[in-house]
Design a protein that fits this description.
heterotrimer; A alpha+beta (149); B alpha/beta (461); C alpha+beta (233); A: 149 residues; alpha+beta; 2 domains; flat; C: alpha+beta; T-fold; seven-stranded antiparallel beta sheet; 7 helices; 11 strands; globular
Chain lengths: 149, 461, 233
Amino acid sequence: MRRIVLWFLATLATVVLLFGYRTSTSSTMPSTVAVAAPAAAAAPSTGTPSAGTPAAGTTTVTGTTASTRWGPVQVQLTVAGKKITAVDVVQYPNGNGRDQEINSYAIPTLVQETLSAQSANIDMVSGATVTSDGYLTSLQSALDKAGIA
Amino acid sequence: MQPVPATHRAGPARTPDRGVRLGATTALGAALALVTWWWATGGGLGDLGGWESGLTSTGRLTGLLASVLLLAQVILMARLPLLEGAFGQDRLAQVHRLVGFTSFTLMIAHIGLIVWGYAAGDLLKAPGETWDLTVDYPGMLLAVAGTFCLVMVVVTSIRAARVRLRYESWHLLHLYAYLGVGLALPHQLWTGQEFLSSTARTVFWWTLWAAAAGSVLVWRVALPLWRSARHHVRVTSVVSEGDGCVSVYLTGRDLDALQARAGQFFTWRFLAGTGWTRGHPYSLSAAPDGRSLRITVKDLGDGSAALRGVRPGTRVLVEGPFGRLSERVRTRGKVALIGAGVGVTPLRALAEELEQHRPGEVVLLHRFTDQPLFARELDTLARERGLTVVPLPGRRRAPDSWLGDGIGRVDDLTALRARVPDIAERDVYVCGPEVWTGLVRRTLTAAGVPDGSIHTETFGW
Amino acid sequence: MGMPVSLALRGRHADDTAAWEQVLAELRHVDAVFSTYRPESVISRLGRGEITEDECPPEVHEVLALARRAERASGGAFSAWRDGALDPSGVVKGWAVERAAAPLSALADTDFCLSAGGDMVCRGLEQPWRIGIEDPHDHTRVLATLDVRVGAVATSGTSRRGQHIADARTGRPPTAVASVTVVAGRLTWADIDATAAYAQGADAAAWLGHRVGRTGLVVWADGSTTTVGGTAP
């Protein structure tokens, strides 16, 4: 009898401890990556996109929700005559934790004040002026110098 | 011993039973097919094109199938009267082993394939990936703990381990299966995507989980407790039957509401000291008369020996009645009862309750080593009800024979035919140790008894 | 091509100079084949009609096929054949950097970020790379940041030397947009989309929004911004 009580208490204690771990009560992964846009499973954009508002004679078709590996995806097509002129994704999948890690199409976050590259903790700079002429005075060169030093 | 009033309507309930079995099997098959179809239409088939995505896709499928099977297993083992009655103990044990083995294999495959797939198809990265999965993904630590529980359950159920464990210990360890299945739920919700990706899936999975949890709570916990409280079953006396056997007489309120039939068994928990932790399956050894119950137990070891010392007045927790070895499965007018040692217990009850209109309609072949159990009572039954008793005394004469050495040189089949010439026209109820019962069945089939007329029960858990 | 190349490595092979040499070698090779500033490059000779397309190395076929797809996808705003001259530079840059990054992928347990002229390919499995988007009106200022684990970032804008991006439909350079930054899985397409979006002028953000799987930032001539892409939870 005592053995049974000991087993039971040990099991109870273990289960309580397990539930105390962070992943046991939270449904989201503790990563900083923004939620992904679909990779291969969603419909690729086709045809020529229209400029501006849909012209008269266009219809918008919302597809059924498709179940993909990453979760549900729903796509909306704008059709003019017989051509698909625009594709919008109205329901993005959450992805399972795995794919959030791999498909990381992050959304740019605007910075509030003027920041130099170092204080924003940036690794690389993307910009149109990173050219040979502009390089010497560019942020990227400052970063590269800092990297070397 | 008073004659039992024929309050039970004799008649087979076999066709509904077969229907229930068919229905249960179909339901399980349909669930597995549905889950597979959802996987296929959700991109599972398409993913098979690539190595890495193929691994994870197959891993997901095995996980889904294992989940359905594990939940089905829980429902199967929840002691639902519908399933118990339709399948019977032996079939249920077979189904339990089959479903258990399959679900376990699928679960292991699921784990292996997912880890391998997540490691980008590179086996060398698998250990690292396993670690990542366990500590970072939602609900995965719990799922890993659940896996350990299920592995332990399966390992302790392998024959080599079973024989080293006491029945009670093995049974308590087996209960960890519930914990194992339960701990898998969070990771299905949070890391797998199946639950939430469509309304139909959500409904399906939650219904399955609810049915499993509900079955256990109602039929394994609530109902026995309520029944025991209502019927207030207590021990009235303990009598030695000789040859190491002991009969325990019990009484209670409204016992006829239990609807027990001769040939069935209950799981008994004697609430004396630490006895409540041990549930023993014992058959009724006398036909239930609505006022009292009797079990007869051979002193086989720890648990059973304790019964000798049970005091009158001890309260008992009962679960049941279970078992198909009863009037329910009778198909013919003539019956043969074949029992060995303490296996003759339910047959003794059947001999008392089975309807017989002419002497010789019910024949009992009683296999024993030294002293026949219930000698005096069987004698009374022979005189008052026309039961024919055929003793088969002596030590087992050979490993492949079910008869004793008092028989002589003839083989089993001839010996049987000599004693019961019309065996092929009878319903045969067999109860005894597993191997012995198998030998009897073999001889019966050779004698021309159809499979549907052979009813066996062994306590080979 | 005259653009500065930066490479950041993190992890086990962080000091691998051989990888750096491989990257540079590949970029030089691409330059030799595709540079429109070298009269002896394959592309220049093809443009002048001295050789036919069949005689060109396979990389040229690949690039020209990409250029045709880009022209269709952008609705003609981007075109490699403009004013009768062959100039696939809008496609070549992203494609070249993607090729050059290939040997870096082979470095085990190493994260890399290869940037050439402001367009980059990243792999940051251990830790994401933080990319800053330059303010096209003030080159010393960072306008936005984003974290990229596995993907590519390309920016197209007014000061891009040698691009002469013009809206192929109007023939004139677009004026409403200052720069477009696009994040995608592959740099080839990030580059094409950035160029094509930029060429759409005022429709840049709307056009980019229709491109499934892209996120990005449009900086307008007046300094305001539009963030594109993201999830509808």
